């Protein structure tokens, strides 16, 4: 039975592998990612029929916390004026339910298997960064300019801010998995961070630059506290931050992006946020908003009245929390945020460093991006939150359940 291709542990491993491959392949191909998702669902159904699914009160409770944005979107079908557009948004957010379900209700992968998948994700992300660097350097040699945002999406498909988010997660996983080992593995951590961090400074969002410095500082501090001060470790960390700092201070485009945060004439976010706040005040109520399908047309109307920039139309609120308030009203937004903070609190209480990292990343990226409106944001939220959240959840109804500490 141990060599059975459909043994329980092998099926669990393949389910997790397909999840990681699906989120990784979105860097290069939506089609491949969708095909892998279909195979993942088929395998999950097969697993459920053959071995049954794992349920517990805690597991179901935290699963519901993760689905609160989807539930709010589902409820908005009741009061929306544009049922069809809202249903389209809902059909996209089904990804969150599907990916989190396939992880939440099977037994968790063991620590060794999870580490292997984390390294696989990291390697794929680093490959996408290396390809982007090669393209950027080639473009610079030919035209005298580095990559713009549009150039990047023609290489890796994923939007530049989410490539930054994936890169930050890759750095975190490098530090977590290879920090305590030999000189060569520590060197790989250093090289990986050097590949990712400067590229984020050149091409990614201001939020990602801040997030990268916060998370890497926290991870390094955590490792130093656990393992003590080591000269090579401190030197490598100092060099990463020194190189990043020099690039940041000498990158005119990056400095300009920070300066124009509140510039209505040159930054769409400033105008979009003001329009969003005005629309929320005029349309959102305690129990209801305008629905997920109505927001874009109303936002575009406000932007067009306050600017003649046609390229600023069809942009979302660029703030997940404003989007929730606009779409679902005050009470449902509070419930979504409360559920998220309960998960965040669990990460802190259990000292679950990777769940803490994922929660902090989502909390910060949500200030400037609508991660629930894009497939790669939904997948990051559903897969990584689920994978690290179920670690340590007690299932008293299943005596054979093995815990991951």
Tell me what you see in this structure.
The chain is mostly helical and 405 residues long. The chain has a domain at 116-259. Helix content is 75%, strand content 0%. It contains 16 helices and no strands. The radius of gyration is 22 Å and the shape is globular. The chain starts with 7 loop residues before the first helix and ends in a 16-residue tail after the last helix. The model is unreliable at 395-405 (pLDDT under 50).
Short description:
Helices cover 75% and strands 0% of the residues. The protein has 405 residues and is mostly helical.
Task: Write a concise keyword list for the protein shown above.
mainly alpha, 405 residues, 75% helix
How many extended strands? 0
Radius of gyration: 22 Å
**Helix count, per DSSP?**
16
Q: What's the rounded overall pLDDT mean?
A: 80
Helicity level = over 70%
**Which structural class should the secondary elements be placed in?**
mainly alpha
N/C terminus separation: 27 Å
**Shape from CA axes?**
globular
Uncertain regions spanning at least 5 consecutive residues = 395-405
Name the assembly state: single chain
| Beta-strand fraction estimate | under 5%
Order of helices and strands: HHHHHHHHHHHHHHHH
Report on the biggest sheet: none
């Amino acid at each position: 039975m141990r060599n059975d291709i459909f043994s329980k542990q092998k099926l669990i491993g393949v389910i997790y592998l397909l999840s990681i491959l699906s989120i990784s392949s979105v860097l290069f191909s939506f089609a491949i990612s969708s095909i892998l998702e279909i195979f993942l669902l088929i395998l999950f159904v097969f697993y459920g029929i053959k071995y049954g699914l794992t349920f517990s009160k805690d597991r179901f409770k935290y699963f519901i916390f993760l689905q609160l944005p989807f539930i709010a979107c589902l409820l908005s079908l009741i009061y929306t004026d544009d049922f069809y557009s809202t249903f389209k948004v809902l059909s996209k957010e089904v990804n969150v339910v599907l990916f989190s379900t396939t992880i939440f209700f099977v037994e968790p992968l063991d620590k060794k298997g999870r580490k292997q998948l984390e390294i696989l994700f990291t390697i794929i992300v680093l490959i996408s960064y290396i390809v982007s660097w090669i393209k950027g350097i080639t473009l610079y040699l030919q035209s005298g300019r580095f990559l713009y945002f549009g150039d990047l999406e023609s290489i890796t498909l994923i939007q530049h801010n989410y490539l930054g988010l994936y890169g930050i997660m890759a750095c975190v996983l490098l530090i977590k998995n290879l920090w305590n080992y030999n000189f060569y593995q520590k060197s790989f951590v250093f090289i990986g961070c050097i590949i990712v961090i400067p590229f984020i400074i050149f091409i990614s969002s201001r939020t990602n630059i801040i997030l990268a410095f916060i998370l890497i500082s926290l991870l390094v501090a955590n490792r130093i506290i656990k393992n003590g001060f080591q000269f090579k470790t401190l030197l490598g960390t100092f060099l990463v931050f020194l190189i990043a700092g020099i690039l940041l201070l000498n990158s005119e485009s990056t400095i300009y992006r920070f300066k124009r945060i509140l510039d209505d004439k040159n930054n769409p976010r400033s105008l979009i946020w003001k329009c969003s706040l005005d629309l929320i005040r005029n349309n959102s109520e305690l129990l209801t908003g305008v629905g997920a399908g109505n927001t874009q047309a109303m936002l575009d109307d406000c932007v067009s009245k306050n600017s003649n920039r046609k390229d600023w139309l069809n942009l979302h609120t660029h703030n997940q929390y404003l989007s929730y308030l606009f779409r679902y009203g005050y009470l449902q937004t509070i419930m979504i945020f409360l559920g998220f903070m309960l998960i965040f609190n669990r990460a802190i209480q259990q000292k679950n460093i990777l769940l803490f990292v994922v929660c902090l990343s989502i909390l910060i990226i949500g200030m400037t991006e609508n991660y629930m409106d894009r497939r790669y944001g939904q997948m990051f939220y559903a897969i990584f939150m689920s994978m690290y959240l179920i670690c340590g959840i007690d299932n008293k109804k299943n005596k054979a359940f093995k815990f991951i500490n």
